[in-house]
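tool_call: predict_structure(chain=1)
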Amino acid sequence: MEGWKNSNIQVFWGEIAPCEHLVQFYENDHIFLNTLEGFAGSGMLADESIIVIATSQHIDSLNQRLTDRGFNLIDMQESDKYIPINVNDVFSQILVDGWLDEIRFNKYVTDLMNRAKQGNRKVRAFGELVAVLWEQGSCGATVQLEHLWHKLYRELNFTLYCAYPKIGFTQSPTDSIDIICKTHSKIVDGRARPAPEIYYKSA
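tool_result:
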């Protein structure tokens, strides 16, 4: 695996830079949820704020995993240390005629970050908006959104993780993946690995 590095999953997420844009192309939901749990849980342990914009199914699964790990999600949500948001609630505010409105999107994310950064906390966010747009066939809007995210994560100084199911790349997958990878700083491997390990490389 040329260019890939491996690390303990807890070490990797615990030492992730405060300003990164990561992407994963995962084989199945189990692999994805393992990654998302590590991303969110390690941030909670570091007293960072966690934003998760995802489908209701993925939010429910993540919440169950984090609760099983002993996190008090109710208290964390009340203090805006944990902010789970359904993707459809975001789309209703940032899409106009199927395309992203850049002004609306920038305001939405900026307001969200101001909530999460209370007490000068660091923020890490997961966004499934791109994967849902891609699944719906909105390829142009997906690339547009990735570029907007890439611009904002640097301006607002937060860590951003995006993920796509590999099954969505059925036509010219290599070219499509390459285009998306160019808007990220690191790629997280989405194949099944031994439980304590994570593989990654620079985009």
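agent: The longest strand covers residues 159-165. Proceeding to next step.
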